[in-house]
């Protein structure tokens, strides 16, 4: 979604009713500020579910992927990220690694991850879809709202009025 906002302003306006993710993610996508309702995946070093989900219509949603913090294999690369963009996802937050960093930076898609690695992941389909995932002292619940910019990530139980 393209509305202008700043997470710092959201914190100032909404205070303790929203939570801040303490994990320090890196920006990889060409869109540095993004927001939308949350869809979730929990998987470890296997991106089959990520690929499947991002090949579905995104309608402005944000996919939050809990990869257990693994930097050993990438859970998203340029082809999957291009599919996310083509299918209308607002962004992807990965508690893990990505690859094809130069290509990701050219996409108008919000992408945050812990880091990058050239190693691709397994593709067995192991993982869980649409359950609460937790990292950075935040529980990411499907259909909650995520707001992300250069300052970080905040999560609200409901859509916020943007200041």
Automatic annotation (TrEMBL):
UniProt cross-references to PANTHER family, sorted A to Z: 4-HYDROXY-4-METHYL-2-OXOGLUTARATE ALDOLASE 3-RELATED
Family: Belongs to the class II aldolase/RraA-like family.
Keyword Lyase included in the entry's annotation: yes
Pfam family for this entry, one: RraA-like
Protein name (Swiss-Prot/TrEMBL): 4-hydroxy-4-methyl-2-oxoglutarate aldolase
Organism whose genome encodes this protein: Nocardiopsis rhodophaea
Subunit relationships: Homotrimer.
Highest rank taxon of the organism: Bacteria
Record function comment: Catalyzes the aldol cleavage of 4-hydroxy-4-methyl-2-oxoglutarate (HMG) into 2 molecules of pyruvate. Also contains a secondary oxaloacetate (OAA) decarboxylase activity due to the common pyruvate enolate transition state formed following C-C bond cleavage in the retro-aldol and decarboxylation reactions.
Swiss-Prot/TrEMBL cofactor(s): a divalent metal cation
InterPro entries: RraA, RraA/RraA-like, RraA/RraA-like_sf
Documented EC number(s): 4.1.1.112, 4.1.3.17
Keywords: Lyase, Metal-binding
Catalytic activity: oxaloacetate + H(+) = pyruvate + CO2; 4-hydroxy-4-methyl-2-oxoglutarate = 2 pyruvate
